[in-house]
Amino acid sequence: xxxxxxxxxxxxxxxxxxxxxxxxxxxxxxxxxxxxxxxxxxxxxxxxxxxxxxxxxxxxxxxxxxxxxxxxxxxxxxxxxxxxxxxxxxxxxxxxxxxxxxxxxxxxxxxxxxxxxxxxxxxxxxxxxxxxxxxxxxxxxxxxxxxxxxxxxxxxxxxxxxxxxxxxxxxxxxxxxxxxxxxxxxxxxxxxxxx
Length: 195
Known about the structure:
Blueprint: H1 14-28, E1 36-40, H2 47-52, E2 58-63, E3 70-72, E4 75-79, E5 93-99, H3 108-118, E6 119-130, H4 135-143, H5 149-153, H6 161-170, E7 178-183, E8 188-194
Parallel strand pairs: 1-2, 1-5, 2-4, 5-6
Antiparallel strand pairs: 3-4, 6-8, 7-8
């Protein structure tokens, strides 16, 4: 990753907040009460972690820049690149989330392998990412400033169900423990993979 700033570190177009809320809505039902959660690419303010903090036991966020390290008694943010080995112990988290992140990383195989490493047995990885066919629409929305041009320019790749499934399998997840669906009128993918 060559970017220096996290999502929502700067003012983003209004529509970004709406899209972020729709992505988070897909993820919220996967977060169980009392769970330990790692949010990779948590954004500058750790929005997902803050939102679920009353529900979870522990929340850890990792991104290139963060507002501050401690956000509450059970939320910690770390300034780090998720493209590098995580300084977190193996088998630590019940859930790892990546909402609109995997399309930004240089080596998605490495990032997903690291996410799998830190998951407990039967833990789950939850991903949202733009669907491959959404690229022209996202490019247009960025061009007319409804969504962040900086974020769209930073997309390294787009996925479809097959390519996302393939990368999860290559990273060690079993095919029968992977679930992928489209949401937001087919513009985004939601994936859940169980370790």
